[in-house]
Write a structure and sequence with these properties.
By secondary structure, the protein is an alpha/beta fold. It has a single domain, classed as Isochorismatase-like (Rossmann fold). Helices cover 46% and strands 17% of the residues. It is built from nine helices and six strands. The chain has a six-stranded parallel β-sheet. Helix 2 packs parallel to helix 8 and helix 6 runs parallel beside helix 7. The termini are far apart.
């Protein structure tokens, strides 16, 4: 095969790869945002244990593949800190960002931290789906971020609020996904050095 033919074939393969990967998460473009998973919220949530475990898996996976992690806390002096299950596994330097606005985008420190990552894909986990998550998702979409909502890592106090919020966010342009889908998209191949560790994270079902 001539050099020009080989170059053309490689270009076609690259174009096909771009087409096939369209809409998928890229570890080099992603940032994980975990919203307000705080101790005092948890007893009142629909399937709160699921949210904590799903968020834990996402954080551990993000650390494995080098995806930045941002964590927020709503009015922590009243609602308490991020649950220790998550707080104790945060990457070095990932200090929770306190806020008063429901949307994370309303907090200047969050916006600065997000911009600093230089990432274009935002992966959202946390609570509550109809409040802080919902407003954050809508404002991120309006700011042209590709926003992925991890539906099994979200919740609300009431199931109806959760269901309606997820539907609204999808209609607004958010990409629905799951913990397993996120982690597998971040590695893409069983040849990735992180694959076996990711496989262990997704082996068991999430708690109800």
């Amino acid at each position: 095969m001539r050099d020009d033919e080989l170059e053309q074939e490689l270009a076609e393969l690259e174009a096909m790869e771009d087409m096939l990967s369209s809409g998928l998460l890229d570890r080099n473009e992603s940032v994980l945002v975990v919203i307000d998973v705080q101790e005092r919220y948890l007893p009142h949530l629909y399937e709160g244990a699921r949210v904590v475990e799903a968020s834990r898996r996402l954080i551990e996976g993000a650390k494995l593949v080098g995806v930045p992690v941002l964590v927020t806390e709503q009015y922590p002096e009243g609602l308490g800190p991020t649950t220790a299950t998550l707080r104790d596994i945060l990457p070095a330097g990932a200090k929770p960002i306190a806020k008063r606005t429901m949307s994370c985008v309303g907090e200047a420190k969050f916006v600065a931290a997000l911009r600093k990552t230089e990432r274009t894909q935002v992966v959202i986990a946390g609570i509550e789906a109809q409040a802080c998550v919902n407003q954050t998702v809508h404002e991120l979409i309006a700011a042209d971020f590709e926003t992925h909502i991890v539906v099994d890592a979200l919740s609300s106090r009431f199931r109806r609020d959760y269901d309606v919020a997820v539907e609204r966010q999808i209609r607004a342009g958010a990409v629905p996904t799951t913990v397993e889908a996120v982690l597998l998209e971040w590695v893409r191949t069983a040849d990735a050095p992180e694959f076996q560790a990711i496989r262990q994270l997704i082996r068991d079902p999430l708690p109800a």
